[in-house]
């Protein structure tokens, strides 16, 4: 029998997703935490209004829906999800499914899926990307759950998803928390790419003294080639916007203090938990944290302000540096997906994740199409950056990245994400590094043992005073 859909939470994302679902010909039961929000939503729904059945509460909605039911939650991540489950659960029957379409922490999703599955209920953790516009016109969606449950809701989700050359940007990427994990890593890459673009902007604006319009023109130019991406496009648009009252570039009126709801941070936390380093994403999270400490920066400015030499920038060199960094941050993100897939036994199809990200989501870009092709074709689990498709490009761009980072350092312009990318590339291209000394230190103070290059086994150094 056909699934009946209900959606709870008519905020920005919930409203937009509801209209999208209705437009694709599905009837939808709707409810919100505040009953009046449902009335307001229905009043605004215009010609799509007939598709909706409004309810006063989540419990009312679930009770009055026929089975089998799929209840989509679009409530803030955290306690609100648990509260919604508690409210709906008494009225649910085997065969019904709850779909959490918020930005949940995947550990929570795993816990909730296990709890509900014990009671015969199904749970899907679904990452949704694309902001309000994406939700309305076609988001990218990453689903975690069982095959059977996914297949039950698949036609509806494929109908509302973004389309990349005829393929819907939605799929099941693994069981339980896999979907929310993939969305978390998407956001980590989003943080790094946003910071990267901001670093390029900083060098041009504060270093070279270019105008916002000149920078917007360059970003528009870049957006016609290998750096084509949604974030590049909107960065140009933001820089081109002027305040209607003062006529100033609007960006100059925005407080330089970035917010974060947590997903980028989770990416870094999870990477470190799994013994993987996503240094570009860690750097981007750190940069947001520093940006938010405005008082600290004011104090630092008074204490350490450096003479800021004017930067002489070659846009073609900067372009290569940005491309190299973008490749590295995606590569680190995919390395993390791979590590998590092993750790949690998700058997994740990494190429499929890249394919889902080619349209609808915030990090959509031409690079992701190349990444999808590279991952489809690779026969070894090498880091993405070392795939032939990217290794040549990186080798070509590496001198430019070094030149830009050097220029930035000399001019006291912070470029933490570019520096992290360069640091990773330099470390990963040293066949013999400096961890020999680290191992010597560890053995000296803790008798941890060392491996030798000249014979097999575990040894201790002939230290004279190894206490
Ligand atoms: C998306 C975005 C979105 C993001 C919010 C807030 O893919 O549509 O990633 O889901 O979570 O825009 O992000 P921050 O507040 O953490 O920047």
For CATH, the homologous superfamily of the largest domain is named as N-(1-d-carboxylethyl)-l-norvaline Dehydrogenase, domain 2
Q: How many domains would you count in the coordinates?
A: 3
Q: What's the gyration radius in Å? A: 25 Å
Shape: globular
Beta-strand content bin: 5-15%
Bound molecules: 6-phosphogluconic acid
Please give the CATH architecture of the largest domain: Orthogonal Bundle
Distance between the termini: 73 Å
Strand order of the largest sheet: 3-2-1-4-5-6-7-10
Mean pLDDT: 96
> How many extended strands?
10
User: Secondary-structure element order, as H and E?
Assistant: EHEHEHEHEHEHEHEEEHHHHHHHHHHHH
- CATH names the topology of the largest domain as N-(1-d-carboxylethyl)-l-norvaline Dehydrogenase, domain 2
Binding site for substrate: 103, 129-131, 186-187, 191, 261, 288, 442, 448
Organism: Ruegeria profundi
Keywords: Gluconate utilization, NADP, Oxidoreductase, Pentose shunt
Pathway: Carbohydrate degradation; pentose phosphate pathway; D-ribulose 5-phosphate from D-glucose 6-phosphate (oxidative stage): step 3/3
Structural write-up:
Keywords: Gluconate utilization, NADP, Oxidoreductase, Pentose shunt. This protein has 467 residues and is α/β, with parallel strands linked by helices. The protein folds into three domains: 4-176, Rossmann fold (3-Layer(aba) Sandwich); 184-428, N-(1-d-carboxylethyl)-l-norvaline Dehydrogenase, domain 2, CATH 1.10.1040.10; 436-467, Single alpha-helices involved in coiled-coils or other helix-helix interfaces, CATH 1.20.5. It is 55% helix and 9% strand. The protein is built from 19 helices and ten strands. The strands form two sheets. An eight-stranded mixed β-sheet has the order 3-2-1-4-5-6-7-10, sandwiched between helices. A two-stranded antiparallel sheet has the order 8-9. Strand 8 and strand 9 (167-168) form a beta hairpin. Helix 8 packs across helix 12 (279-292), helix 9 packs antiparallel against helix 10 (230-240) and helix 12 (279-292) packs antiparallel against helix 18.
């Amino acid at each position: 029998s056909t699934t009946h859909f209900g959606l709870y939470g008519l905020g920005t994302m919930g409203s937009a997703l509801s209209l999208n679902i209705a437009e694709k010909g599905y009837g939808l039961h709707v409810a919100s935490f505040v009953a009046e929000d449902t009335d307001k939503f229905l009043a605004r729904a215009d010609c799509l209004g007939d598709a909706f059945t409004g309810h006063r509460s989540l419990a009312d909605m679930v009770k009055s829906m026929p089975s089998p039911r799929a209840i989509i939650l679009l409530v803030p991540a955290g306690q609100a999800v648990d509260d919604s489950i508690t409210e709906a659960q008494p009225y649910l029957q085997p065969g019904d499914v709850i779909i959490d379409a918020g930005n949940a922490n995947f550990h929570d999703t795993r816990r909730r899926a296990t709890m509900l599955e014990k009671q015969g209920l199904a749970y899907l953790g679904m990452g949704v990307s694309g902001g309000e516009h994406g939700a309305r016109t076609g988001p990218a969606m990453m689903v975690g759950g069982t095959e059977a449950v996914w297949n039950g809701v698949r036609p509806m989700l494929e109908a509302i998803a973004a389309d990349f050359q005829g393929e819907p940007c939605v799929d099941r990427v693994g069981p339980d928390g896999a979907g929310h994990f993939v969305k978390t890593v998407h956001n980590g890459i989003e943080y790094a790419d946003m910071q990267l673009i901001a670093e390029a902007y900083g060098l041009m604006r504060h270093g070279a003294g270019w105008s916002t319009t000149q920078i917007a023109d360059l970003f528009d130019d870049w957006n016609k080639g290998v750096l084509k991406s949604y974030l590049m496009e909107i960065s140009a648009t933001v820089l081109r916007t002027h305040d209607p009252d003062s006529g100033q570039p609007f960006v100059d009126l925005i407080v330089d203090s970035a917010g974060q709801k947590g997903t980028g941070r989770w990416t870094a936390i999870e990477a470190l938990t799994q013994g993987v380093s996503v240094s570009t994403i860690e750097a981007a999270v750190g940069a947001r944290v520093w940006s938010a400490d405005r008082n600290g920066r004011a104090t630092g400015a008074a204490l350490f302000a450096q003479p800021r030499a004017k930067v002489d920038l070659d846009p073609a060199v900067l372009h290569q540096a940005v491309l190299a960094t973008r490749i590295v941050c995606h590569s680190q993100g995919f390395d993390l997906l791979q590590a998590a897939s092993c750790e949690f036994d998700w058997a994740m199809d990494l190429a499929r994740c890249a394919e889902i990200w080619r349209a609808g989501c915030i990090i959509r870009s031409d690079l992701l199409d190349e990444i999808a092709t590279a991952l489809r074709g690779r026969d070894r689990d090498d880091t993405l950056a070392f795939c032939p498709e990217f290794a040549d490009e990186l080798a070509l761009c590496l001198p430019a990245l070094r030149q830009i980072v050097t220029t930035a350092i000399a001019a006291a312009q912070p470029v933490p994400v570019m520096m992290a990318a360069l640091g990773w590339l330099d470390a990963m291209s040293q066949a013999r590094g400096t961890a020999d000394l680290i191992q010597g230190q560890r053995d000296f103070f803790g008798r941890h043992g060392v491996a030798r290059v000249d014979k097999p086994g575990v040894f201790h150094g002939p230290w004279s005073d190894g206490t």
